[in-house]
Write a structure and sequence with these properties.
The complex is a heterodimer of chains A (151) and B (729).
Chain A: E1 2-6, E2 9-13, H1 21-29, E3 47-50, E4 53-56, E5 69-71, H2 79-90, H3 100-113, H4 119-126, H5 136-150
Parallel strand pairs in A: 1-5
Antiparallel strand pairs in A: 1-2, 3-4, 3-5
Chain B: H1 20-28, H2 38-41, E1 56-58, E2 64-68, H3 77-89, E3 96-100, H4 105-108, H5 125-152, E4 160-162, E5 165-168, E6 171-174, H6 175-183, H7 214-218, E7 234-239, E8 247-252, H8 254-257, E9 262-268, E10 271-276, H9 279-287, E11 290-294, H10 303-314, E12 320-325, H11 328-333, E13 337-345, E14 357-363, E15 366-371, H12 376-387, E16 394-398, H13 414-425, E17 431-434, H14 437-442, E18 450-458, E19 464-474, H15 483-486, E20 487-488, E21 491-492, H16 493-496, E22 509-516, H17 530-548, H18 552-559, H19 564-577, E23 588-596, E24 599-610, E25 613-624, H20 631-651, E26 656-657, E27 660-661, E28 679-684, H21 702-714
Helix pairs in contact in B: 3-5, 5-6, 12-13, 17-21
The chains are: A alpha+beta (151), B alpha+beta (729).
């Protein structure tokens, strides 16, 4: 039994310790907002926050998050999350939307650390999050809009 | 995706049951069913269809569900269709939901393809829907008014509709209150539609109509096929042939079958499926399966070898003629200057972020399939065939997909066929076949590789006197039921679109095609033929402008004298880009124009150099797509098309090493990342012409615009894509 917290709820799961957190969340707990895109930390679709820091859930094993706090898109909350998600919807950032859970969490991670990110800051923080619809210019605009709302 | 030439199809597609929609409708809609039923099925051809019989469902709770004839892979067609319906229906925007319709080609047949088969592609969603869904909204509104008039016993003319409410003087009633009565009324014929000057939604920006799914897609609540939960749902991962065309000889799954969570390992026509109770266990078990392959019929060449054969073919006369006007031979013989160039385009993967998947369940002789149903009639027939049931026993659940770019429109139904076959092999249990990224990248269906050989002549005044293009590559539709309508005189139209017919006034022009055969499965890839033809045409034209000593914009405008819409688009782009103004030191620009799917797009790229690669800073995009239904969505599609096309020309290619696909993930197959995304300014030319599509046309001009800017910076022409391949450095 491995214990950890997801979105503030304690989980106690009888799953293989080497099972990637991505599949623990999706198949073990039923939280499907975290997406599978590559399985190799190359696309960012599976981004979650572990103790507040963006992490690729496809590369973390269940054993790696024992005792830690995991936040998925379903549990994203607080002031930063709120303004980020509002900016995303207001600018109609998503096209297909598949990567956006990861993009939003990466943006929350960035704005939590840096309230006034420049374009290069945004590019650096989000370069690992692919969007095949190439909504990138709206992602940048939405991060700036969220930063303004936080100021 | 599927080009509109399907309109000319003469032969029917796979057998499709027109009765399928009865069951489909019943399954799609919980709650009150309005108008779905035999009455609609028997509707006479030519009569206006009852809008409540498949286009619009209004629940007693007042929800308005619109059934879209086109699936949404991110291009925003659900939003577009909702806009069209509501322009006439006048529901409250918050009432509206959109779901995928299917199972009734009579209602959902793609108008742009001739109306006999439902499908999404060729940027036909908006043009095919523009009249159909406005008429449905208008007829529904009139029927609601009529029903309310009966209910209140007042003249219909005194009833007004606003924001989903029917009003007579001080009395109000919701749509839901009268919809049962409304749906049973005769369908009004020749319903007048609003005049453009009265539109309140069409052509208006997103402040008016917010995309209703943006919030769900921002909060993780949007469900895709990968997210569907069903009782007892299993997961299967596939083992596909390591080389295209290889067949399973022998499977040893003894070890895998003993592993935790594994349900079965089954052989299906397209490979071997490892079925388990979750994805991770299926993946682990897959590693423990050994498959022996019969590779006697497999493709074993490397791409280097395939491309070398294409280059050799390109030097010979083409096997088929796509265009032959004037006399190119004579013209080139008397030209003052001859230019020649050979271009090479790689295989490209779609690499949508949601890897291919589908879910199937067979229960009591009924089949259900969840997936990105881009060609639902075809998939219904395929599922029925595999399960051994009549098509009307198949229910489709049309899911939004995490991207698509053409990949979900496959005539053999690939992953859908796999899901049904696997479910059948395990007693009909519900199963999701989920490809990994590597499966997705290596199991085929690529934009075909091509070689183009171009030759043109200038007279002493710098005018083009002759233009010749020989295209060599695979046919997308060859060997499929689309062949009959889309291959003419040996020319697959998808191979030559964007090259065979040009807006430029070339007095003598000849375009030849040599169709090749390889074992590599190919498919339409966002903007199809124009993804390569526009690059060759527009960079070669730039070369000719330079040789003629003329400005590339002025040179094109001169050649566009018979095409004012093209000229207007180019002028608008040039004006917005400040083409006449000098650029700061270190910045360079290039221009390209391409018409695809009847939409004309001009793009001007501003670049600098980073090492020997272009860094694209800004792209000015102008387009004419007729009436702009959702201007902000059009901008989004141009932005996205530019990013999608830019990544491909800079970095993407699929290669084969002795028949095995080398690239398996986003490390080998690189796509655009945020730090490479330019600023994009989109300018839509005002128009009163019928709308044309925008999902694909943003893609073709970006490659040549960047390549022409790169020439301005380096005096080097990039003729083999992608830019970053070693031979270009």
């Amino acid at each position: 039994m491995i214990r950890f917290s997801v979105n503030g709820q304690q989980q106690e799961l009888d799953l293989e310790p080497d099972m990637p957190l991505l599949w623990v969340l999706r198949d073990g707990i039923g939280l499907t907002g975290t997406k599978y895109g590559c399985g190799q930390a190359l696309c960012g679709a599976c981004t979650v926050l572990v103790d507040g820091q963006p992490a690729r859930s496809c590369q973390l094993r269940l054993i790696d998050v024992a005792g830690r706090q995991v936040t998925t898109i379903e549990g994203a909350g607080g002031r930063v999350a709120e303004v980020v998600q509002q900016a995303w919807a207001r600018l109609d950032v998503p096209q297909c939307g598949y990567c956006q859970s990861g993009q939003v969490l990466a943006a929350i991670g960035l704005l939590t650390e840096n309230r006034r990110p420049t374009d290069p800051d945004i590019d650096a923080a989000l370069a690992g999050n692919l969007c095949r619809c190439a909504t990138y210019s709206r992602i940048r605009a939405a991060v700036h809009e969220a930063a303004r709302a936080l100021a | 995706m599927i080009p509109r030439f399907l309109a000319d199809r003469t032969m029917p597609g796979p057998a499709v049951s027109r009765r399928g929609f009865l069951l489909g409708a019943a399954a799609v809609s919980g709650g009150l069913m309005i108008g779905f039923g035999p009455r609609a099925a028997r509707a006479q051809a030519g009569a206006a269809p009852n809008p409540f019989a498949g286009y619009i469902r209004i629940g007693t709770d007042n929800t308005v569900t619109i059934y879209s004839a086109h699936m949404d892979m991110g291009q925003g067609i659900y939003h577009g269709i909702a806009t069209l319906v509501n322009e006439e229906l006048m529901a409250d925007w918050a009432q509206i939901r959109v779901e995928g319709g299917w199972g009734n080609p009579g209602l959902y047949g793609n108008v742009g393809w001739g109306g006999t088969i439902q499908g999404t592609g060729g940027s036909t969603g908006t043009p095919s829907s523009f009249d159909r869904y406005r008429k449905a909204g208008a007829a529904a509104r009139l029927m609601l008014i009529q029903a309310a008039a009966q209910e209140w016993n007042v003249p219909a003319a005194e009833i007004e509709v606003e924001k989903g409410m029917l009003r007579h003087k001080a009395r109000y009633m919701s749509f839901g209150n009268v919809v049962v009565r409304a749906a049973a009324l005769p369908v009004p014929q020749d319903v007048p539609l609003k005049k453009p000057e009265d539109w309140i939604y069409i052509g208006k920006d997103r402040q008016t109509l917010r995309k209703y799914d943006s919030l769900a897609k921002t909060t993780g609540r949007q469900n895709f096929t990968i997210d569907v939960r069903l009782p007892g749902l299993l997961t299967a991962v596939m083992i596909h042939p390591p080389r295209f065309g290889a067949k399973v000889r022998q499977v040893d799954a003894t070890r895998a079958k003993a592993m935790r969570g594994v349900v079965d390992v089954v052989q299906v026509p397209r490979g071997v499926a490892v079925v388990a109770d979750n994805m991770w266990r299926a993946l682990k078990a897959r590693e423990a399966v050994t498959v022996e392959w019969d590779e006697s019929g497999a493709e074993t060449r490397s791409t280097a070898e395939i491309m070398a054969s294409y280059h050799a073919l390109a030097r010979q006369p083409g096997k088929a003629i796509a265009t032959d006007t004037g006399n190119v031979g004579t013209a080139l013989g008397s030209a003052a200057k001859i230019l020649e160039a050979t271009f090479e385009f790689p295989y490209l993967a779609h690499a949508a972020l949601e890897p291919m998947n589908a879910i199937a369940r067979i229960e009591n002789g009924r089949v259900e399939v969840w997936g990105g149903h881009q060609m639902p009639d075809v998939y219904q027939a395929i599922a029925a065939g595999i399960a051994g049931v009549a098509p009307d026993k198949v229910t489709l659940h049309v899911m939004k997909t995490g991207g698509g770019f053409g990949r979900r429109a496959v005539i053999d139904g690939d992953v859908i066929a796999e899901a049904v076959a696997v479910s059948k092999a395990i007693g009909g249990r519900p199963v999701r076949v989920q490809w990994t990224r590597e499966d997705d990248m290596r199991a085929g269906r690529y934009r075909p590789a091509y070689v183009h050989h171009l030759k043109a002549g200038l007279d002493s005044a710098g005018n083009i006197v002759g233009w010749q293009n020989h295209i060599v590559g695979q046919s997308i539709v060859g060997g499929t039921p689309f062949e009959a309508g889309m291959v003419r005189n040996g020319v697959d139209i998808t191979s030559v679109e964007g090259a065979a017919k040009l807006p430029y006034a070339f007095p003598n022009m000849r375009v030849e095609l040599t169709t090749t055969t390889t074992g590599v499965p190919v498919l339409w890839w966002r903007a199809v033929g124009s993804t390569h033809t526009a690059y060759a045409v527009e960079t070669f034209l730039d070369e000719l402008a330079v040789a003629a000593g003329k400005d590339p914009v002025a040179f094109r405008l001169d050649l566009l004298k018979d095409h004012p819409r093209h000229a207007a688009v180019l002028k608008l782009a040039a004006e917005k880009a400040g083409w006449d103004q000098p650029l700061p030191p270190g910045r360079f620009r290039g221009v390209a124009v391409a018409e695809s799917f009847d939409t004309i797009v001009a793009e001007i790229a501003e670049i600098s150099l980073e090492g020997n690669q272009p860094k694209v800073h800004r792209v000015i995009c102008a387009l004419d797509c007729g009436i702009a239904v959702n201007p902000d969505n059009i901008r989004a599609q141009m932005e996205g098309g530019i990013g999608f096309g830019l990544g491909a020309i800079l970095k993407s290619r699929i290669t084969l090493d002795q028949g095995r696909v080398v690239e398996g993930n986003f490390d080998g197959y690189e796509v655009l990342r945020i730090d490479e995304m330019p600023m994009v300014d989109v300018h839509i030319l005002p128009s009163a012409e019928a709308p044309t599509g925008v999902g694909e046309p943003g893609v073709p001009p970006i490659g040549p615009a960047v390549a022409n800017a790169y020439f301005a910076a380096t005096k080097r022409r990039i003729r083999a894509l992608p830019f970053n391949r070693p031979e270009n450095s």
